[in-house]
Design brief:
Shape: globular
Largest sheet: 8 strands, mixed
Strand order of the largest sheet: 30-31-33-32-34-35-36-37
Distance between the termini: 57 Å
Radius of gyration: 25 Å
Helix content: 10-25%
Strand content: 25-35%
Structural class: alpha+beta
Length: 671
């Protein structure tokens, strides 16, 4: 089954129709939405239905208090806080079965540099009884953990549920080697009442991930040795592991197979390219050891990015992301439910999620969103066909004051098609506006998909057009688009961004004298290289936690990187550049080597505890650029890592961005 770009359904149609809608007129310009509404901690993050669908578990909080774990009895319409932690917020939540849950703790009030505790692991009954700690929170292995019979601090929840019909779950023990990215993952079967575990035999020493089957039992183990990934299968008949497939882990490998999920009949769904430009969902043939060549699911023009939705007896449908995240149902009953929900919530994309045993309950969880409406969670009762709001991530956001977003594609100078998102500010003016080019990090990731995002909507609310290009090297748009970015830092990748700006200028949307480039991590690098390569195009730049010296990424005696040794040894030379063979290019495309060429106003922000892009990148560049540029602002958040975790720091940073942009390309620049 495939889906053409012209027939992707509700999500994209809604995006385009809302974008074309006239702006709401008012007698006077409304007050700007406060910055806190964009960057404070979300008021409601998620809800999880119990396997039988009767109970909803959710994180809840009151101002100034840590987030607690609450359970709502949907049948009785009653709720109760069942767990809280004095010095931390409830983190991830999973149902062990319909009577018991596991959860961990998150230090949301601390930055990366100040955190002194691991997430731990806890279990509790849905009524709050039999609360037990299962894993230690202390990093000091010399404590009395053994006496207390706790699992070590590096024991974490698995992002998959087991059978959910007993008190047992599977958890992962991350045995560190040289860094967190070099961890060996041991799988443990854990009794959530006694804390006792049984190790799962593994096929090789260095397993990096596991996949449970349709019965909630370990079935696949993926291991990485040097530059090769191997997939092993635990045969249910022989109880022995055997190799299914292996492929080179880095670069553009057409033989890559990504296990996705086991269907209710034991069918293994995988994502593979099968000699095509874009990946699709295939089934795996255990007899031949190969994928079945005919794709089961594909999204034309996009690599498949999503998951299969199943019940204990059948495959129901799939979530997938193209321009937006949407849903397609194979099951007639779920398709009818989706149609009803869409009629009840016509202004949003509505992702319906049935509980595992959905046939036993009338309740389904609905996550709704649009470009102007932040994620909102609803409960739908299929018996009464009524829907009720369970929680909002951003309850203070007024959709009428948000920008409207449009997915589009433009041509780069060499003819390559570049996907992008364009967010227009609220109001009637559609020409000659100031623009911020927001460059995503990675760079080998997908940027934002259509929807509400705090950064782009904050900028749009302040009157800026926001362009988010998916430059070559970005994932999700096929192998050719991905591979075209190899060894193109500061070169063709940079040109793609500049060509997007020129496209917007040619369309008359943007004032060519009021364009700023901004981004984090690789986006910060691209910001600096944009100011260097295209000084006449960009009036200013905002770089946070950005790379300034490519060679520094390969390692330094002055800091410990959280990037794996295998990635630095095998991936980076092929995809960024070889330090010996490409030495001249790496020097020419490192901002630190050309800091004196940047004359435009610049805002730099870095985290003192960053292990991905250590603060050396920022301090050395700041020292170099300020020698010849007096218009450079610097801010350091000592406790932050790679990105700003604490709301107070995010609010402070974006307040600085707001003032910086207003001074250089906004209303303040014209005064």
């Amino acid at each position: 089954m495939s889906f053409s770009r012209a027939a992707l359904g509700h999500a994209l149609v809604l995006a385009l129709s809302l974008y074309a809608a006239p702006a709401v007129q008012a007698q006077a310009a409304p007050a700007l939405p406060p910055i806190e509404r964009f960057f404070s901690a979300p008021a409601f993050t998620s809800g999880v239905l119990s396997p039988d669908g009767r109970y909803l578990a959710a994180r809840t909080s009151t101002p100034g208090q840590p987030r607690a774990l609450a359970v709502i009895d949907l049948q009785a319409n009653t709720g109760k806080v069942i767990a809280s932690h004095a010095d931390g917020d409830i983190g991830d939540i999973q149902w062990v079965n319909s009577e018991r849950l596991i959860f961990d703790i998150s230090d949301n009030h601390l930055g990366a540099g100040d955190q002194r505790h691991a997430p731990g692991l806890y279990a509790v009954n849905r009524d709050g009884s039999e609360l037990v700690q299962l894993a230690d929170r202390g990093y000091d292995t010399t404590t009395s953990r053994t006496a207390r019979r706790l699992l070590p601090w590096h024991t974490y929840m698995l992002d998959q549920t087991g059978s959910q019909d007993s008190d047992y779950v599977y958890v992962q023990n991350m045995v560190m080697k040289t860094s967190a990215r070099d961890a060996r993952v041991e799988l443990l079967r854990l009794n959530t009442r006694t804390g006792k575990t049984q190790p799962v035999t593994r096929p090789v020493a260095d397993v990096t991930s596991w996949l449970l089957d349709h019965k909630g039992e370990p079935r696949l183990a993926m291991g990485l040795v040097e530059d090769t990934t191997t997939i092993h299968y635990l045969d249910p008949e022989t109880k022995q592991w055997r190799k299914l497939a292996s492929y080179k882990a880095y670069g553009n490998n057409p033989e890559t197979i990504t296990p996705l999920k086991f269907g209710p009949d034991g069918t293994l769904y995988v994502v593979a390219r099968n000699n095509k430009d874009t990946s699709a969902v295939h089934t795996f043939n255990f007899a031949t050891g190969k994928i079945n060549p005919e794709p089961l699911l594909s999204t034309a023009g996009y690599d498949f990015d999503g998951t299969i939705l199943t019940s204990p007896t059948k495959t129901l449908g799939m979530f997938f992301t193209t321009d937006a995240t949407s849903i397609e149902w194979f099951d007639p009953e779920m398709k009818a439910i989706q149609q009803t929900v869409d009629q009840l919530l016509p202004a949003t994309v509505n992702l319906v999620a049935p509980p595992p045993k959905y046939a036993q309950t009338p309740w389904l969880l609905v996550t709704a969103y649009s470009d102007a409406i932040p994620l909102t969670t609803y409960l739908y009762n299929r018996d009464t066909k009524q829907i009720s709001k369970a929680g909002e991530t951003r309850p203070g956001i007024d959709p009428t004051l948000m920008g409207r977003q449009q997915p589009l594609r433009y041509k780069a100078r060499d003819g390559l098609e570049i996907p992008a998102l364009l967010t227009m500010p609220p109001g009637e003016k559609r020409s000659g506006l100031p623009m911020v080019v927001l460059v995503h990090g990675g760079p080998w990731v997908r940027g934002a998909s259509w929807g509400w995002h705090p950064e782009s909507q904050f900028l749009a609310s302040r009157g800026y057009v926001v362009l988010e290009p998916e430059f070559r090297g970005s994932t999700g748009f096929g192998a050719a688009h991905y591979k075209a970015g190899f060894k193109q830092w500061g070169l063709a990748m940079q040109n793609d961004i500049a060509d997007g700006v020129r496209w917007a200028i040619d369309k008359g949307l943007v004032d060519p004298k009021r364009v700023c480039i901004a981004g984090a991590s690789y986006g910060g690098y691209a910001t600096l290289m944009g100011l260097i390569n295209d000084p006449d195009l960009y009036k200013c730049g905002v770089d946070w936690v950005g790379v300034t010296d490519i060679n520094l990424m390969y390692g330094s005696a002055n800091h410990t990187s959280d990037m794996s040794a295998e990635w630095r040894r095998y991936g980076m030379p092929e995809m960024i550049g070889d330090q010996v063979k490409d030495a001249a290019q790496l020097k020419a495309t490192s901002p630190i080597e050309q800091a004196a060429r940047i004359k435009q106003p610049l805002l730099l922000a870095y985290g003192g505890a960053d292990m991905r892009v250590p603060i050396d990148h920022g301090t050395k560049f700041y020292s170099a650029v300020k020698r010849t540029n007096p218009n450079v602002e610097w801010v350091e958040y000592p406790e932050e890592g790679h990105g700003f975790r604490l709301p107070k720091n995010s609010i402070d940073f974006w307040s600085r961005v707001e003032k910086f942009l207003d001074k250089n390309i906004g209303k303040g620049a014209a005064q």
